[in-house]
Amino acid sequence: MNIATGTLQKNTIGHSACPHDCPSTCSLDIEIGADGRIGRVRGAEDNSYTAGVICAKVARYAERLYHPDRLMHPMRRKGAKGAGTWQRIDWNDALDEIAEAFLKAEARHGTEAVWPYYYAGTMGWVQRDSIDRLRHAKKYSGFFDTICVNPAWTGYALGTGNLRGVDPREMTQSDCIVIWGTNAVVTQVNVMTHAIRARKERGAKIIAIDIYDNPTMKQADIALVLRPGTDAALACAAMHVAFRDGYADRAYLAAYTDDPAGLEAHLQTKTPAWAAEITGLSVEAIEEFARIVGTTKKTFFRLGYGFSRSRNGTVSMHAALSLPTVLGSWQHEGGGAFHTNSSIFGMRNGLLTGKSLIDPTIRNLDQSHIGRILTGNAESLRNGPPVTAMLIQNTNPVNVMPEQRLVRQGFLREDLFVAVHEQFMTETAELADLVLPATMFVEHDDIYRGGGQSHITLGPKLVEPPEDVRTNLFVIEELAKRLGVADRPGFGMTEREHIEEILSGPGLPTYDELLADKWVDRQPDFRTAHFLDGFGHADRKFHFRPNWTDPANPMSPPANMEPMGPVAALPVFPDYCAVVEEVDEAHPYRLATPPARNFLNSSFTETKSSRSKEGRPELMLSNADAEALGIATGDVVTIGNERGSVRIHARITDTVRKGVLIAEGIWPNRDHLDGEGINTLTGADSVAPFGGVGLHDNRVWLKP
């Protein structure tokens, strides 16, 4: 669509960004046929980060857009919750019913009884975040999002004082690339694009560190398979070797860090032998890793979101980030570290999200505690009223959230009204009272920014949506009219007007400039990206001694919430922090639930090609564990803990450690043998200090 003229361009290439919850935010070239339908989706070759490469599931996006099971009309539940009987209704009637239900909940229990709930089903700012404007205007319960980034972002910012780092494209100038805590082949394919280019052009070594021998590990020159949650022990041992063998850059440490002498003294006992006992690696492997990164000045540490999936993830991220700092890697082109660029963009979302309307006395509820909240847990409700009405956009909590039995129990409450605005009949939608059909990214206007790279990309409407399908913004605007807040700041604006406001920050292009150029690169200059003029803390130092509960941390919860999790257990300096869910006699296995290649959270689980490539839900276990229990590939096994149990087919493999079980992907619950998915077994207890979920950190038993 040519937004300036409103004219659909036939037989052309449209330009957009992938809207899904992935740090790559790939720039896309999208075929638009003479019939007004999209065809092949390709990575934009002229975008220096995407470099023409995208994942296969997004390349097949037409399969998702034109799926026969896509929701096409608003529907009202007819029978019992979850019975699957629906009646088509008019949009006006549906919106009236939502507004009526919200007003009833407000009249009975106060405005905090309504909890608008969303997440990153789209990463477009307008369609994702407008729900917050309605929340704040109506004084509904706040939403503290914790499911994804909190531990990793917190640990990174505690070290650097900022959420930015070395330009990820600098990997092509590196002599060693450490891919740590991310299966980039599966989840961030562009990382591999730049890393492999460095290997081809410079002979760079690729070192991968993870908890099983996944596809990224198989492409690495050196693959280190750790016990889950032991990353900090490896980092500390490598720093010990750096001080011991002279790899530590003492001049850099004196100029740029807070307490290098204290760190060195602390690390005296953190030997490779100590770390070997914790990580399961050999002393020789730890020594080799420490030697390679210690003697290779241009080592790039690409730190991933695996750190966010463990109960000690904040500490582990901070420890891994401390290693390139001890080595002084930041000083060199192609050296240093990167996790996210989230702080560099300068985009303005105050009007979009209704920041001027925030009432600081309104409670904030932890997104990841939804099961406990909906089943009346007083602590999770923050001793406030029950949640009795919800609008859900861009997320599927009945599938993706921990403690699934509690989540489902909560959604089945007869006194809970739920409206779900969705693209498919997800398992959350199945338990709703009203289901509304939502547009997909090529059917509406939005704006995107990378987290794993540095571009702001415009995502203009390229094709017309189905006749009875509406945008997220439409739903928010219509509810605001019915709920009496449409006159508040930020309402009554179009997508374009919101995007123009978002782009009003200093140094950003105008809307028309961005439309013409497709994207703008916001990567800071070399000195800024490498922190050569100082780190982001007030003292301009990297902090080896973090203030774990620093309210200035970008992931700090709202002022009316306290730090979370076992804060008192957090160490003074980088260290292994044993707050993981350790095995015991009754639960001798560690279960991790990393992403599958052809799904993205619960998206793409509906497409035939992705499902056929993934096969079925399976549990990966080692040959040693299988032999001990008499289990063969294809056998049905049961895994469980105090939260529940799941039956699943076994796959025997040499890619996992003894005592570690891997269940890839988030398969729909209905695809499991008993209709209960893998998140039945994951716990919602908070990660210290600012929340998160140990999705890869759960102890279980296993039975044939």
Describe the structure.
Residues 11-69 form the 4Fe-4S Mo/W bis-MGD-type domain. This protein is 29% helix and 16% strand. The protein is an alpha/beta fold and 704 residues long. The strands form six sheets. A six-stranded mixed β-sheet has the order 5-4-16-15-14-6, covered by helices on one side. A six-stranded mixed β-sheet has the order 21-23-22-25-20-24. α9 (231-245) runs parallel beside α14. Residues 1-9 have low confidence and may be disordered.
CA-atom Rg in angstroms = 25 Å
Rounded mean pLDDT is: 97
The parts where pLDDT drops under 50 for at least 5 residues are 1-9
Content-based structural category: alpha/beta
Strand arrangement within the widest β-sheet reads 5-4-16-15-14-6
For the largest beta-sheet, the strand count, sense and barrel status come to: 6 strands, mixed
Distance between the termini: 56 Å
Helicity level, as a percent range?
25-40%
**Relative strand content:** 15-25%
Number of strands: 25
Q: What overall geometry do the principal axes of the alpha carbons give? A: globular
Protein name: Molybdopterin oxidoreductase family protein
Domain 4Fe-4S Mo/W bis-MGD-type: 11-69
Cofactor: Mo-bis(molybdopterin guanine dinucleotide)
InterPro entries: Asp_de-COase-like_dom_sf (IPR009010), MoPterin_dinucl-bd_dom (IPR006657), Mopterin_OxRdtase (IPR006656), Mopterin_OxRdtase_4Fe-4S_dom (IPR006963), Mopterin_OxRdtase_prok_CS (IPR006655), Prok_Mopterin_Oxidored (IPR050612), YoaE_C (IPR037920)
Q: What are the SSEs and their pairings?
A:
Elements: E1 12-17, E2 27-32, E3 38-43, H1 56-59, H2 61-65, E4 75-77, E5 86-88, H3 91-109, E6 117-118, H4 125-138, E7 142-144, H5 150-160, E8 176-180, H6 184-187, H7 189-202, E9 205-210, H8 215-219, E10 222-225, H9 231-245, H10 250-256, H11 260-266, H12 272-279, H13 283-295, E11 299-303, H14 313-327, E12 336-338, H15 350-353, E13 364-366, H16 370-374, E14 389-393, H17 397-400, H18 404-411, E15 417-422, E16 434-437, E17 446-449, E18 455-459, H19 472-482, H20 495-502, H21 511-517, E19 519-521, H22 526-529, E20 589-592, H23 608-614, E21 618-622, H24 623-629, E22 636-641, E23 644-653, E24 660-662, E25 698-703
Parallel strand pairs: 6-14, 7-13, 8-9, 8-11, 9-10, 11-12, 14-15, 15-16, 20-24, 21-23
Antiparallel strand pairs: 1-2, 2-3, 4-5, 4-16, 17-18, 18-19, 20-25, 22-23, 22-25
Helix pairs in contact: 3-19, 4-19, 5-14, 9-12, 9-13, 9-14, 12-13
